[in-house]
Request: fold
Amino acid sequence: MPKKKTGRTKPKSAAQKLPAEPEKTRFPLGLLSSFLAIQLFALAIGAKFVLDQISIVEDPADVSNSFIFFFYILAAAVVLILVLTFYKGKWLFYLMELGLLFSASQVLFSLFVPDYSLLLGLLVMGLRVFFPPARNVLLMVVAGIVGALLGASFDIFPAALFSILLAAYDYVAVFKTKHMVFLAQELYKRGAAFAVSLGDAKQQIELGTGDIVISSMLAVSSLKIGAVPNVAAAFSVITGAVAGLFFLVLVLRQRKGYLPALPPLVASSLVFLLVYYLVSTFVPV
Reply:
């Protein structure tokens, strides 16, 4: 959900409007390259998860997982609204952020240096505490790891269904019920880490960590199309996600207010994946 940049904001599942009118003449390629880098990082980690058959569900092909996780998201949104309504402090969200960084970094390090994963996880937490500017990069890494884990846990059809459900929810939550706007505004007041800044010093958007997670999930789950890791399918999804972000930025340059980021990201990713499938199936090589 984007809005005009007047300072540093933290919208959930949202992108933020580009600032100043004069900057509209230069398209912010920096934010596209930043987003692409996150997706490639998630794909690399996700490939390791897939090859090691790491999953948080018993059957990655089970479509019911899509609905179960979707209802988890709805329940989490309800709980978050209640917490934000009755709790006005900041420390709870800060501790949640540290816990998330520690857990995600442990998952990552356990793949490569399992004997030191606990120590390295504590070092990541310390980096966040004593060097606050590292927060943005750390959140990108966390979002990539979570997306990679979900992608390894879902086959492509359940992943696509889950992403479509979330994109529809994102649209309703921003334009209809508007509770996502409430969440974005309240989380910003508490300094909660639910968005990352993408771009360069002159032009940035703030993209929700959930948007990065779902884009990464689709890319990693597409690796499982076929008997061997399907890198071409994964790259088609990533290309689609970048195209969706490109479209989102074009819209943001024309209007103010919050916009849901998942609908264009998911739609473009799935369209590119469908095109890849049709070409690889019906066009002789």
Summary: Confidence is low (pLDDT under 50) at residues 3-25. The chain is about 65% helix and 5% strand.
